[in-house]
Specification:
This protein is α/β, with parallel strands linked by helices. 16% of the residues lie in helices and 31% in strands. It has helices at 20-25, 68-78, 89-98, 101-104; strands spanning 34-39, 54-59, 83-87, 108-113, 125-128, 132-137, 143-145, 150-155, 158-163, 174-177, 180-183, 190-193.
Length: 194
């Protein structure tokens, strides 16, 4: 059970998209402007930590083409802007199926994975529904933690994660799954082992 009462008062807002920008930096580079479309529920706040010039929006596929995020997506694809969709595999497949074929081929997509769903890629983002984005699958084929913002340790109950930059509420030792920790021999940074 996680206690989300903020230490400094205020609302206990859970930012499920926190860390998306740093996680994308490890895997996907935008040149100039771009759009990141996160496939999620409509009550989720859009990502705010994206690279300069890149905007983000949350698209609820069940809302249909009348949603403003859908219009932003189709306009960006029509203008040949770089567009990256982030979501679960089923959501990404449904998005591609909904788009006209000439727009769907321009869309880049990257799946999000929980600690217990890790695979060998070729790409993906490590996500937790409470903590947000924790890292990414890098070119070396390993699931790297964003060690500047995330600390993880193995416990008897599973992998426990602490967000180093989150102050209120302070999220410490949140269990995210049953994976093990390792060190990448190529980069020398912490990785999650499936």
């Amino acid at each position: 059970m996680v206690d989300l009462v903020p230490l400094e008062g205020g609302t206990a807002l859970v930012e499920t998209l926190r860390g998306l920008g740093p996680a994308l930096d490890a895997r996907f580079s935008f040149r100039g402007t771009g759009l990141v479309v996160v496939l999620d529920k409509p009550d989720v706040l859009p990502p705010h930590d994206l690279p300069r010039g890149v905007t983000g929006c949350v698209l609820d596929l069940s809302a249909g083409p009348a949603e403003s995020a859908w219009r932003a997506l189709t306009v960006a694809l029509g203008r040949a802007m770089p567009v990256l969709a982030v979501g679960a595999d089923k959501e990404l497949a449904a998005l591609v199926a909904e788009l006209p074929e000439d727009l769907a081929i321009r869309l880049d997509a990257i799946p999000k994975r929980t600690v217990d769903e890790l695979d060998s890629g070729p790409h993906g983002l490590l996500h937790d529904s409470l903590l947000g984005y924790l890292g990414a699958l890098r070119q070396c084929g390993r699931w790297h933690l964003d060690w500047r913002r995330v600390y993880a340790r193995e416990t008897d109950a599973g992998l426990a994660v602490t967000l180093l930059t989150q102050r209120s509420p302070c999220l410490v030792d949140i269990l995210v799954g049953s994976a093990a920790l390792g060190r990448c021999p190529r980069h020398g940074t912490p990785v999650v082992l499936p």
